[in-house]
Amino acid sequence: MRYLIRKAVILILTMFLISLMTFLAFHIIPGDPAQLILGTSASAEKLELLRHQLGTDLPLWQQYTSWIFGFFRGDFGTSIRYSMPVKTLLGDRIVVTALLGLMVIVLTLVVSIPLGVYAASRRNTAAEQVVNFLTMIGISIPGFFLSIIFMWVFGLVLHLFTPGSYVSYQQDFGAFLRFMIFPALAIAVPEIAILTKYIRTAMLDEMDKDYVRTARGKGASHRTILYGHILRNAIVAVIPLIGMMIGSIFSGSIIVEQVFGVPGIGRLLISSVTGRDFPLTQTLVMYIALIIVITNFIVDILIQVIDPRIRLSN
Amino acid sequence: MSEMNSEKGEILEVSHVNNYYEDTGLGIFAKRQKRQVLSDVSFTIHTDEFFGLVGESGCGKSTLGNAILGQLPFEGTIRVGGMEYSKSDRRKFTEKVQAVFQDPMSALNPRMTIGSTMREPLRAHNIGTREEQIRAVNDMLEKVGLDASYADRYPRELSGGQRQRVCIGAALMLQPELIIADEAVSALDVSVGAQILNLFHEIDAGADFAMLFISHNLNVVYYLCDRIAVMYRGTIVEIGSAEDVYHHPVHPYTKLLLAAIPDFTSRIEDDGTGTLADIAKANAQFEVRNEDPEGACCFYHRCPYANSECLKRPSLTAVPTTDSEEHRAACRLAAEQPSAQVDEKGSVAEAFQSTC
Amino acid sequence: MSESKTVTSQNLLEIRNLSIGIREGDKIYRAVDDIGYEVAEGEILGVVGESGCGKTVTNLAIMGLLPDVLFVSGGQILFEGKDLAKMSERERAAMNGRDISMIYQEPLTSLNPLVKIGRQVGEPLRIHHKEIPEEEITKRVAESLREVGLPDPEVTMEKYPHQLSGGQRQRVMIAMATICRPKLMIADEPTTALDVTVQAQVLRLLKHISRKHKMSIIFISHDLAVINQICDRVIIMYAGKIAESAPAHVIMRHPAHEYTKGLLRSIPRADSKGESLPAIPGHVPSTEEYRDPCPFAPRCPIAQDICRQQAPDAVQIAKDHVAYCHFLRAE
Amino acid sequence: MKSGKIEFRIGCTLAGIVILLAVLSLFWTPYGINEMDPASRMAAPSLQHIFGTDNMGRDVFSRAIVGARFTLAVAVSTVLFCTLISIVLGLLAGYAGGWVDEVIMRIIDAINSFPGILIALIMVTVLPPGNYTIVIALCIMFIPSFTRIVRTGTLQYKNADFVRNNRVFGDSDLRLLLVHIFPNIIPLLLSSVIVGLSNAILAESSMSYLGLGIQPPAPSWGRMLYEAQSIIFNAPWCALAPGLMIVVTIVAFNCVGEGLRKRYLA
């Protein structure tokens, strides 16, 4: 139990550090946000008014505490560009990105696990080389280039979907899915490549372990050894990496939402960044970072439960 | 030789050393337990003496070795040549004590030639110029049975035995007064191990240094050492001259160790007709009872002679022996009867079987 | 090399002119060079040798578990008359665990860390005897664990490998290897990683099970004293060849081959205190180094030129005592 | 390891070609990067214009090789700068242990919980966009993974027998760190740095695509792709050319890194 408490304390500490970093990034470094927004020519009163409105005239730590408490109460301040509370802006956009993220995770797991296992079981054969080559390419294609290619091939050439014709999930969930499969694929390709590579390496490591030799010594068939013994140990070795995938999926979605015009928090983030909309950007950054830290924490606990060596260390 | 040590003076003083292992455990369900590794260990080694420390894995003998080298924290005091280890003046301390470890394969920096590895101690204490250091290395290589041509080779080009010779050479570069050999021959083949044991004899004749020889093999320790200490669960249960401990053991655990060592005189006989009970009876001497009361003798849970008197931890009491060297055992049997003569293996085994 | 003897009682296992190659980079070396020996029904055969002598490789070949870099380049492995080297992967798998089983040196890494003990011990039964119902398998597993001296098997079955001590894990391995009552068990340095007190128990257990079930054991070790405790006959191997083969008490008291003599003299014993051990000079040639026809020649005190030109033939010193040396005379 | 060699050779040749082109662009490019030839707008790839021209009649090949120079410059400076910092942090955290390790690792975990692009976006919001900003942003993005690699290496070797041996010889901690531990980490670090290079290129081009990386008029692959997006249907080569250049360069460095890792760790 002590380990759990220790892990929880570290989680809170990390979240505090994130909030500190985010706050620092948006309040200290840029100097006077009002100046930046209204430009240097603005009159003193207008600057003063905006500063007051933004609350940047208060002492720093006060700004920080009010921002943090506001954040937990769900009051994220008002967006400058859209001049409406950040909360309503986030509203359904979070659901869009969440659904996109879910589709990516499902796609990645469904493709990577069999592919990784297949590559490992066909050790030192042409098939394994092909998979290696594909994963090498998969890792090297940037998200935005892949999206443009998908738009061009699937959209303009094959007319499987019309680029830019996003359908909200409330109106027609089927059409939503048919459209979203392409951005999801664009994010998933590099993730599939990475996870396949990890699973294959984990499988190969397990194959050289002594207990596999024991299993062969018992006369177990190739299949029972591969799925009964090796895969189970390989999955336990790979779970921590799935935690890390969440971070890179978010990165991917920021770019892909922009290319496909999907109204998720990724796209909102870019428009808020280009529009220098501090309160909105700050909230989004904090939001995404927290989600990632929490998922890593959950994955960490998950490993404890699954691996008996840790769960029952006497 | 520093004049401070009289002819028979102590080079190593270990007094009341305790050490705890903080087992934080990995799982969220693991509680943080504090396990005692060394409990009240005290002994001394005379200058120019080969002292054997023998015990099974996990009894704390390597922990003690590392504690003497200042590599891990402990309670109590350890003095080498009158000097305690302090992190601030590590250099002065390392001039007095050096070490040879078990696994020659990982004991040498793979990216460094043999010559520069052996010059490392001289560089660390900036003794002599580069040429003097190289010459010292070449002399040492001859002394340990290799030759100067090995100086510019890399560890991966040497066999296990050759690498162990390099480690011994490196340990001797500073002419230390004490060498800690932690399982120095255990990882080697039998024939190579014998060469290393012979090497220890040859260099002992040349330079005069004391050695703490740590091993799980009582035969090797008996062969090489003048005095032997037997360790069990972090406690010294018997200490004395090699003759006394090997041929006149007093502590039941030492007897058990001697009975269990496979040798060339006796064989395990079994015609397969025995039942499970017979097997259990034969193995009785090794069975572990589950009552292990706090503060009792560390061998209480396995000892066939244990009684109420053993509930209080016995201290090392002298055994009336013919040999001049002091022979002590941490057991009530020590004072009562003269060291039981171990005529042949059978008698010890029967002693154990009869009592269970 | 060793001419096939007149057909004695059908030997359980017969190795004839076996050679095993090892691929390193694009060169091929000989890990095992033309060896031959037999194992009779219920006999415990000791295989002794230092690292790199090919003792483990030979037995992995018997089990068909050779890693990719190693391959059988010649000779036969006859188990009850059938040549295992020529068998298909599937036929070999059908025999492993049922007719031949193996236990290894590191009991912790030899067990699957994520699977309970009970399930792993029962696996050979599930593979080879699909007809046995699950409750019967559990009963047999419990019985097998009790036979190897593990108290309250029901509790042990629910545990994971990391929760047991070295000695207990090795007993589980023995239970797993004997549950199908195989005719031959190969034990590769089973007690080397154990404490001397635990080793004594496991050796006694192995001998008992061998005699009780008439199960032959090939016991591999580098420690002659351990071999002396348990083996009926002993084979001394050096650098991929057999140096000598004889009953255990003959090897221990009056060995013929210089290498065996050197090995026995290298072991510190009660009476050798103080004097320097007459150790064998030099080191074992690794597979890449050049090996003379008689590989021991460079380290042998009585070596002559002939040893470096021609491989020594088998010299029949006594009824059951063979040694490979130019300077030995048949009795 | 044979397979390690093939990947290594393929990687080196591809990387060599790209670097050669980038260096070439310093002295000569077939056309000026902003030289517009209104007559041959959106011309298909031909002998005069190897990669064809974009909607403003500019030669795609010239812009691509100059873009290579900028992208590589940013990536290389990022990786160098970041490796230096990570070596110090990693060695310190790994060797010192205790609270030093705890503090450094907590900061690393915090940075690591920001998805890569996010950090770059923050930096670009906060600092005026430009080449320096993007280098700093990318550097912060890669510090966590590099530091972890160095730290794991240090932990692995800190208790290795030969380091303990040299500590008993009397070596100071600094000497142990620099002479014994660090040289043994270099091979692993080298292959990760090269793989890091390809990740840096990936990240830089994404930022330039968003217009937050290398600022026009300097061409960069990411920006070229952004501009080519609208005319993808009738002039796909404008997008394919820079896109494929990115993929080839990233594959090249990944192969070199993978080849090195296999050769040293095999």
Report on the architecture of this protein:
Chain A is an all-alpha fold and 314 residues long. Chain A has a domain at 89-271: Orthogonal Bundle (MetI-like fold). Chain A has 13 helices and no strands. The longest helix of chain A has 39 residues, at 222-260. Chain B is an alpha/beta fold. Chain B contains 12 helices and 12 strands. In chain B, strand 7, helix 6 (190-206) and strand 8 form a beta-alpha-beta unit. In chain B, helix 3 (114-124) packs across helix 4, helix 3 packs parallel to helix 5 and helix 9 (252-260) packs across helix 12. Chain D has a single domain (2-265), classed as MetI-like fold (Orthogonal Bundle), CATH 1.10.3720.10. In chain D, helix 1 (2-27) packs across helix 9, helix 2 packs antiparallel against helix 3 and helix 4 (116-126) packs across helix 5 (131-158). The longest helix of chain D has 37 residues, at 60-96. The radius of gyration of chain D is 22 Å and the shape is elongated.
Short descriptors:
heterotetramer; B: 356 residues; alpha/beta; Rossmann fold; 2 domains; eight-stranded mixed β-sheet; four-stranded antiparallel β-sheet; disordered C terminus; C: 331 residues; 11 helices; 24% strand; disordered N terminus
Mean pLDDT figure of chain B: 81
Determine Rg of chain D (CA atoms, Å).
22 Å
CATH architecture of chain D: Orthogonal Bundle
Oligomer: heterotetramer
Q: N-to-C SSE series of chain D?
A: HHHHHHHHH
Assigned CATH architecture of the largest domain in chain B: 3-Layer(aba) Sandwich
* Poorly predicted ranges of chain D: none
Into how many domains do the coordinates of chain D divide?
1
Quickly describe the structure.
The complex is a heterotetramer of chains A (314), B (356), C (331) and D (266). By secondary structure, chain A is mainly α.
Would you spell out the secondary-structure blueprint of this structure?
The complex is a heterotetramer of chains A (314), B (356), C (331) and D (266).
Chain A: H1 2-27, H2 33-38, H3 44-54, H4 60-73, H5 86-121, H6 126-140, H7 143-157, H8 173-207, H9 210-217, H10 222-260, H11 265-274, H12 278-306, H13 308-311
Helix pairs in contact in A: 1-12, 5-6, 5-8, 5-10, 6-8, 7-8, 7-10, 8-10, 9-10, 10-11, 10-12, 11-12
Chain C: E1 13-24, E2 27-39, E3 44-48, H1 55-63, E4 70-79, E5 82-83, H2 89-95, E6 100-103, H3 117-128, H4 134-147, H5 153-157, H6 166-178, E7 184-188, H7 196-213, E8 216-221, H8 224-230, E9 233-238, E10 241-247, H9 248-253, H10 258-266, H11 305-309, E11 314-318, E12 321-324
Parallel strand pairs in C: 3-8, 3-9, 6-7, 7-8
Antiparallel strand pairs in C: 1-2, 1-4, 4-5, 9-10, 10-12, 11-12
Chain D: H1 2-27, H2 60-96, H3 98-112, H4 116-126, H5 131-158, H6 161-169, H7 173-209, H8 221-229, H9 237-265
Helix pairs in contact in D: 1-2, 1-9, 2-3, 2-5, 2-7, 2-9, 3-5, 4-5, 5-7, 6-7, 7-8, 7-9, 8-9
